[in-house]
User: Fold this.
Amino acid sequence: MRTIRKKHKKRERVLFFTARPNVQLAFVGVLTIGFFILGGLLLWFTTLQIPSIDSFHNRRVAESTKIFDRTGKILLHDVHGEVRRSVVPLEEISRNVKNATIAIEDAEFYEHRGIKPTAIIRATLANIREGRFSQGGSTITQQVVKNTILTSEKTITRKVKEWIISLKLERVLSKDQILEIYLNETPYGGTVYGIEEASEYYLGKSASELSVAEAAYLAALPQAPTYYSPYGNHRDALEARKNLVLSKMLENGFLNESEYDAATTEEVVFIGRGDTGIKAPHFVFFVREYLEEKYGVHAVSEGGLRVVTSLDWELQEEAEKIVKEYALQNETKFNAENAGMVAIDPQTGEILVMVGSRDYFDENIDGKYNVAVASRQPGSSFKPFVYATALKKGYTPETVVFDVPTQFSTSCSPNDLSNTPPCYSPSNYDDDFRGPLSFRNALAQSVNVAAVKVLYLAGISDSIKTAVDMGITTLADAGRYGLTLVLGGGEVRLLDMVSAYGVFAAEGIRHPAQAILRVEDKDGNVLEEKSERPVRALDTNIARLVTDILSDNEARTPLYGSNSPLYFGGVDVAAKTGTTNDYKDAWIVGYTPKLAVGAWAGNNIPESMNQISGLIVTPMWRAFMDYALVKYPSGSFTPPDPTPEDVPPILRGVWTPIAGGEVHSILYWIDPDNPRGGPPRNPSRDSQFYSWEYGVSAWALSHGYGSFFLPLPQQTPVFPLLPPTQPTQQTSVSSPSFVITAPVDGTSLNRGDVLSISVLADSSVRYVSYYINNAFIGTSDKPPFSFSYVPTEGGFLTIKASSDTGLSNEVVLFVN
Assistant:
């Protein structure tokens, strides 16, 4: 092999004393600054107080972190009060655990001398880039030092101490001794410390018996034990981290390909055991996850924190009893084995109640799973956000939309009422249609077709923005959702829903949900205290309008009856139920000015129930409300401002035409984006216009009114009041003031598609008649002169438009 040597160009030597004066001055300046920095670092380093390595053998005893209710007197959980720790020698720990731990935590553990300079430099650069001390590049040795001698504070001083002690520790202990300490003293979640106790607790076996997959799961936990808990709400994240551990084991030679493949497909069953001495467990672990993320796992496990939460234990205890009682009944009656509940003070955002399942310790239903923060479809309980958005745009509670069979997909013909993709023609909960319906009655009675129309008027993006502004955190970009959003097509969390409804209760002010009132360290220093962070999320009157609708017992009576569980007599309570189309989730969220409460019922693994939400979840919610309203009296809702008189008639509830006139959808009368700006110049340009008009025309014909579609396919033709202009055999007479603008001559369409005809005419034209191959099909007597028809024949068609002034124009198209 030939060796290639690099040729170096000769560089000219420049003596310092021959350089230019400004270069000399710059060099001296840099040198002086460098001496000052170096001197400062030396001074800081010499004064640094480094703990003696002897302190490792006398390391500190962990101090309990205690979590209290809002009174600061009722202890919900002593984090370290029931510590589970079994110390075992390294030789009694499965090789799989050792390898998995080293692979994910410190792959070069047996090569370095306590620290890894490259990792330190990489972490330092990352911290500089992020502008905060978020990464430490810690080895297993450093973690042992941090967890046994030092604190978990994130400062450069502590980090330097950690590096120095790690180097010292590696000189007095062997690698195996350090690894043994790490595996025996690392927290694995809750009160479980050490790999032996973790193995027994999660898997029911000794650490010496762990398989590769089991070891990978346990090695995944120490980074964030509460977040990655097998019993929490982040099983997908745990699964991903377990797979990362396995890939690291393969990468570092701890596994071969066949062992790796076997481990990735191995099914691991977690047995779990009940946590004793804990109140409100779902809430406690919700708080712990927050604390661990903010202060670090060891600060929470051993730092002696005192945490005063927002929880009202009296309400919580009653809520747990009620949820369990009704969930057990629902399991027998409705195939709904689980339930959850959240209560919030809407004036502060403080979480008063969080029940994440009927029983945290019930392993038959995976009781540790917290449905209060799980993402589920909300059904119709999402509708208030959409109506609020429409009201923001200028619509009113009296605005009328037609609850009639409607094909919303522009890919399907208006007379095709199928619901098979790409078609979308939803039905109502009772398969009935009510004709003209006000926003108030449509929302109060939870009418689906009307709600989809309101979503179209309000806009999907704007509706999502309203929901997000009010506190919904789980909705992604608007492009992911269609018109099904208003019927619960997006997934939300019960906690977020209650918080967002609290914005209505607080008349448009959002107080973000919070669980912490105060956090103190072991010396009584306040680390964190609740701060008011109110923001205006909704106009005051818009919030009042929605509340007025949701508390209108008369408006909801056709659905619920006049004396339903939603009616509290003289007490002001607003509420909305929701059920998914497949009956997998049942919801109710309600509020007073002082209390917002939401409840959910269903199954953790989505499975259809056999009833709608009114029977499943509302009685449970009502039982709790009756109890809670004694402690948190309702107060009164402030009435909204009345609807102005100068808005278009359709926004004031006036939809009936002049005698003999045509009935139209709302898209005929207003511009959806500017509903108070008057009628649109050409409503047919709206993509939904013909679909909505078709459904309204069918309703109008059946109720004795005039129709926009003349005639409707498969119905008896209904001819206009005005006599049609008879076609002649003469050549078409056209004028620049009378032209068919659509369709364009020579275009084609498919049989069954809607043929939309538009005519540009001057002000002298009173009406226009339309013909296909000289056969009359209808008349339009109002500008813009537009007409829609669904051809039933194929081939070449001559479309002709004739005016009452004698002008005409025609085009030819082909129907496939």
In short: The chain has a mean pLDDT of 84. The radius of gyration is 36 Å. The longest helix spans residues 21-47. Residues 66-302 form a domain with the Penicillin binding protein transpeptidase fold fold (CATH 1.10.3810.10).
